[in-house]
Amino acid sequence: MEELDVDPPVTIIPGVDSKKRHMGFDWGPEELLVYETCYENKRRAERGIGCPFIRIVQRDEDIYSPVLRKLFNESHSIFVGLQKSEEELPSKSRKSQLVRVSKNYRSVIRACMEEMHQLAVSTRDASLTTQYTSQVSVLSAMELIWNLCEVLFIEVATAGSLLLHLLDWVQLHVCEVDNMAQEVLNSESPTKHDKYWNVITSYVLQGRMDEARQMLAKEAIATATSRSMCRILDGLMKKMPVFNPGGTQILTEYELKWQHWHEECERYVQDGTFASSSHLESICKILLGDEAALLKQKELLTTWYHFLVSRLLYTHPMVKPAELHVYAQSSLDMFLGGDNSPEPLDNILMAAFEFDILQVIKEFSITSSNWWFVAHLTDLLDHCQLLQSHNLYFGSNMREFLLLEYASGLFAHHSLWQLGVDYFDHCPELGRVYLELHIERIPLNTEKKALKVLRICEQRQMGEQVRSICKSMAMKAVRNNRLGSALSWSIRAKDAAFATLISDRFLKDYCEHGRFSDLDLIDNLGPAMLLSDRLTFLGKYREFHCLYGKKCFSEAAKLLLSLMTARIAPCSFWMTLLMDALPLLEQKQVIFSAEQTYELMRCLEDLTAVTPDVEETDEKRLRDDGDDDETTKVEMLRLALARNLARAIVKEGTLDG
Amino acid sequence: MEKFNAKFVSQKISKSRWRPLPPASLQLPDVFATGSWDNEENKVSIWSIGDFGSLNADGDYEGDHQLLCDIKHNGDVLDMQFLDQERIVTASSSGSVTIFRHHQNNQTLSVNQRWERAHYHSGPDIPSCGSAPCTGIVCNNPEIVSVGEDGRINLFKADSKKILRTIDNADSSTLHAVTFLRTTEIMTVNSIGQLKMWDFRQQGNEPSQIFFLTGEKVPLYCVDRHPNQQHIVATGGQDGMLSIWDVRQGSLPLSLLEAHDAEMWEVHFHPSNPDHLFTCSEDGSLWHWNASSDIAEKPSFLQLAGRRNTTLSRSTLDHSNINQSLMSPWLSSDPAKGHMEITSLLPSQTLSVNSLDILGQCLVCGTDAEAIHVTRQLFA
Which InterPro entries has this protein been placed in (chain A) (predicted)? Predict the structure, then answer.
């Protein structure tokens, strides 16, 4: 076993004083039932009324947020699309495809974040506001991490373009400057606004030179004294070389240009060109990459990773991916200055800068109860062929482990379970087993839901589950006295045993009431009749009644006899069948031929011969009760058979003669 | 492909229906209702697209549909239909039939009338009868007919608390859907592949006619009647097959058309353009079936050279065309002729499209992926 990285968080169960009381629990698929036990405490004085509730403890509460449901649903289709996408594409277009998928995921996170933010703003309930606000911060952290992972692991940006991507990343997530700029521009005299220089500095820190220059131009117009200084700074900003990843420029050429520009900046600082304006001087020092000057802008930088990117921009624009973590670590140390310890988010980002994917996933899993993020990110990184070597000491690999956890969470949800199915489908090793175990436990309150679950099982050839679902639906129908419905369920599952059971119920009902129920079903069984012998008998017996009703006596007689001679009819039903033959025997014209009559007689003798040693005592007792009745029947039958035989022999003899 | 607007709504949609337009109205439909299923708390919701969606220069419909109001619904919404402009009837898995009223002045919904446990199971083993899901309803103001898993048919009249007529044991299996054939006749479909015609003028609980699929008894889940030619009925079933029936003759379907890969949940003829038919399915697809003769007739550019020739052959064709339009393409449609054009309207997805509704140029559908898709330019 690996050691635990952190102590697991403690959840307080309200109403149970854990110091004085004992708690019991039971595991569910994704939840835990917690209750107070009756276990006697030694000290009698402590006795009293305990907590009368059983509580459900859920691990992933995010799944119950209505806004996040949109995230789950939208990302589900992206996930399915990604699994279906072709792995065979040439590596370049494959990469752009994966980047597109990653961007889709991020835009879904953003949309959710915006909606959550709207809710937080619009609601008046203070507790809801805090809840929404914390969700917004979780979502924005997710997007921040995802975006960084996209740059580092999926884009696999190389020296030069790496920094451009990191700049985009910072610009996207630290956007206070835009609000500030709006505020400044809307004021009467922008250059007198106390945030004016903050705006310019912020633009410079994010490498947004054009915007910074536009802003600076206002100062040049407004203040004549600093006009020449502004022009020089403007010139520096304009001249700053920017790497063009698509162009033909060679990295060394760019480096040379940049070095040249850097020296020029340095010259101006040493000359004291901007000495008369502290603002301009500090901006020039930033351009020079002066760490002290950068750190002075802590409030504008807001985070250490912004500091890192700004620092790289003006000191090492050609930073290579492998060098990144050294700068990241020193930036973090410098920025926090030993006052604060890094927060979980800092650790996660640091792990990303160290290119330690496993650590990113692990840190996030520890700090958040949300499986969505790690499952989807891991899956995407796995599609980038980045996780092959990471095998766990339990279950399958990490991708599958996380997907299984996420999907199990979905299955625990009242209505998101349908999404879980596709996730299980794409877990090659254990997905099927998980699905089998989960799908059987879905409560089926309507047939429509049962049909949907059945379709899922049938598409995946899960015969066992199909039978079990159909059987439970059939049982439910039987309990509700809906035999027709029950039969159609067992026909769907091809469940012969259950079909026999239901057929017996039909026959019993017939014996009791003297007529069939559910004729629309029995009359139209078709090939389904062959499912079980009893069902075949039921169908054929009903056919006999139809023939009899249509006065097709000889066909009816033939069918009746064949039911017994072919041993389709259950023995217990033979007496009923023979009694059904009675009116046919008593018809004016001869229906049973001599040979058929002999067979009928043999059936009767077989039946009476068996009767004395009936094995089941219940049946025997019943027979004893109705003994008189039975003997009368047998006698009546014998008489009718004998008379029919006589008439048949005479008739056949006459015809032959 | 038509431009669809999708919105995720955090509930699985089981039914979606356009609010009918007032007679002689020229405006586009802009309000629809949806019902949810399988949620801890299910809802009936009213949505609007009119005030918020704007048409841009190209005539494309932009903007989301917005929630106007919603109300809690006890149980899954298994079927739903507008009774008139203001009232919506729903069928619930709790066995009740409810009429909701949509108050348009203050945008609220309220319960107008409810028949609790209109569908129930009864039997020797269950002395206190358990409710049975009501699976389908159909309205013909003021009459409402409901069917359920208990195989029962109920006839209600809006504004009357009493159930006017009940046919117990109308079916030995589950009745899945119902539609009006004429004012006193209805058609039901059940889970053993039968289509039954009932006449409320007849007493007793026997159908006036039974139609059935041969071979495998494939359950039928939806039924719709041709809006002008009342003898043509379309049904869809478990195997995703579309069946067209002529209820004047025979007891077997007129044609069986291979369609979806899984359960067909709804089938609808276009109400004013009935040569077009729409189906949706558990396999996540939404299809447009175009049987209108103009596809076959559409002059292609290649034929322009021999125009005279074409017109000649047209005039000879006209006779058969007249016959055909009397006959309706659905009856003459022989799969071999191939006069049917089928278009898939939604991008492929894995989760079921549960419901669809069409009115004029507009189509709305709801899915298990918790999305509502709307288009306002169906035949663009």
Answer: Nucleoporin_Nup85
